[in-house]
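Hi X.,

You mentioned you wanted examples for the new student's onboarding notes, showing what a folding record looks like when two proteins sit in one file. Here is a clean example. The first protein comes first, with its sequence line followed by its structure tokens.
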Amino acid sequence: MASTLLKHFLCLLLAAFAASLMVQASDPDILSDFIVPANSNGIDGNFFTFSGMRGVFEAPTPPNFKVTKASMAEFPALNGQSVSLAVLQYAAAGGVNPPHTHPRAAELLFVVEGSLEVGFVDTTNKLFTQTLQLGDIFVFPKGLIHFQYNVDAKQPAIAISAFGSANAGTASIPTTLFATGIDDNVLAKAFKTDVATIQKIKAGLAAKA
């Protein structure tokens, strides 16, 4: 009897631990309607309004790629709300959002102008790609490496991305690997090439920064 009770207790304990991990895997729940910054003397409707996107659709096309974010950093009212948004603009003939990940959220991408080639790689190293047209929506699963690319020679593209976190985070694969000080010898061995090639890649990234 005691052994059975102990097994039930351990099962409940494991279930509670698993549930705790699941909760911690996304933005934590808050115990209030919203979070007011500590240095605030009072808020009104302005606190819940973000005007940083005004004019974004009328702005000149970027030379390659531009992202305008409305995350917790830019829009403090999102703190605790588990949502954020970004407007992505791609130049014609090769505007690219390089391979990157969002460690804390999935991404829902909605094409509002032009078309895009998109894709992601899962944890079995399988590549999933799609050509998106105006009005299409594509989901990039949480934490997986993904990219977007505008192959149209004449038409720029714009997409809106929604995230299930107020701070999804972005880790750019080229920048993470080649612009953070990882030793050239380590990278050369990892990519089965020589140090000169690694240094050439790093110099190219530095020139575009």
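Then the second protein repeats the pattern, sequence line and then tokens:
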Amino acid sequence: MSFKREGDDPSQLNILKKRRVADLLSNFIPEDEAALMKNGRYTCLVCSYRPVFDTLDMLALHRQGKRHLEGLKWFYGKKARFQNEVEKRRHQDYIQAEEHREENANPAPLLTETRKITHHALLKSTPYNSCHKTSSGWLQDKSGNWIKDENVEFDSDEDQPAPLPP
């Protein structure tokens, strides 16, 4: 299957390259194991010393050799390690994206309410609530005494509110 070129016709060169690619595919040689060079020769991408072959038959013969088979183990081992590393990094990026999304997302309402109740239960004093019922209609002055709010209507039997618990 040796193809000899006559002249420098670029279209002829392209035809020969296409024919060689077809030959390469017909012999079931994976694309990542061999490459077609610019000059029309083949090179083995598995072997570290990158041997160059004139014909596809020579490449096929090389692929059965001991050095190539050893290189094949190394080549696919390296490829598997690389793929494993890529998957690890994708997974780490996914985990970071999920953590970032969880930080920005609103937590569940029940969880929020539970945290709020727990927080208030652990406080040493009751937090101030302007809507408290021991102060409806009563205002506290600067000295801490309770005075009646002028804008609120009172029942006649209502006394001063009890002080807030400490």
